[in-house]
Specification:
By secondary structure, the chain is an alpha/beta fold. The protein has a single domain, classed as Spore Coat Polysaccharide Biosynthesis Protein SpsA, Chain A (Alpha-Beta Complex). The chain has a 7-stranded mixed sheet with strand order 3-2-1-4-7-5-8, sandwiched between helices. Helix 7 packs parallel to helix 8.
């Protein structure tokens, strides 16, 4: 059973070669798709070079910075056109270790969504300031409390989906544009009856390049969890129907 890993990119030229070489070295039938949003640093051009070198690699070029969520969704649509049993997602900044993928695929055999978790069974984050670790940990506590999704790290971007879990969703209904997308995808799969589990990973802070995190992204996630919860209540409250 083959798998595809989707990697959104924007200004990740410094990290792309090392990440690709580590991915293609895995003893797995794994294809890689980079979805590049017109990176001005030449990430897309390097991705094309890597695609010529490695037949497992595909590149999607997009005009302009269209956003994280839409990049992943575009990758989903490509994966669903192929014969992939599992669809993975990870970041391009080397924070996610490809060596964890075999364990995630093993866990996926009995689940619909496997989360590469920084916080299950303890905290495993390297090269982050304590303030950022605490912000991330409390953000997950907040999201978990509001939405009810029973996992420790609902915001992780390192994950593996069962193909059928993606096929069951209407991707056009996804509201989140940024990293809140992680929460929404986990929530929708869980609410649809999907089985979620977590695999412990070591998360490495960015060594090269600039972080994409911003106050706007944090605010979007804070608001989204309430939209998801209130939307659920409106759908289940008989008095909300005309």
């Amino acid at each position: 059973m083959s798998s595809m890993v989707i990697i959104p990119t924007y200004n990740e030229r410094e990290n792309l070669r090392q990440l690709t070489e580590r991915l293609v070295a895995l003893p797995l039938p794994l294809d890689v798709v980079f979805v590049d949003d017109g990176s001005p640093d030449g990430t897309g051009e390097l991705a094309d070079e890597l695609a010529q070198r490695f037949p497992q690699v595909t590149v999607i070029h997009r005009q302009g910075k269209l956003g994280y969520a839409s990049a992943v969704i575009e990758g989903f649509r490509l994966a669903l056109k192929g014969d992939y049993s599992w669809i993975l997602q990870m970041d391009a900044d080397l924070s996610h270790d490809p060596a964890a993928i075999p364990l995630m695929l093993q866990a996926a055999e009995g689940n619909d969504l496997v989360l590469g978790s920084r916080y299950v069974g303890g905290v495993r984050v390297i090269d982050w300031e304590m303030s950022r670790v605490l912000l991330s940990w409390f953000a997950n506590l907040y999201a978990r409390t509001v939405t009810g999704v029973p996992v420790q790290d609902v915001t992780t971007g390192f994950r593996c989906y069962r193909r059928s879990a993606i096929e069951a969703l209407d991707l056009s209904q996804i509201r989140a544009g940024g990293y809140a997308f992680q929460i929404e995808m986990a929530y929708r799969i869980w609410r649809a009856g999907g089985r979620l589990t977590e695999v412990p990973i070591i998360f490495y802070g960015r060594q090269r390049g600039i972080s994409k995190m911003s106050k706007r992204i944090v605010l979007e996630a804070a608001i989204l969890v309430w939209r998801l919860r209130l939307g659920r209540r409106l759908r289940t409250n008989p008095r909300s129907r005309g």
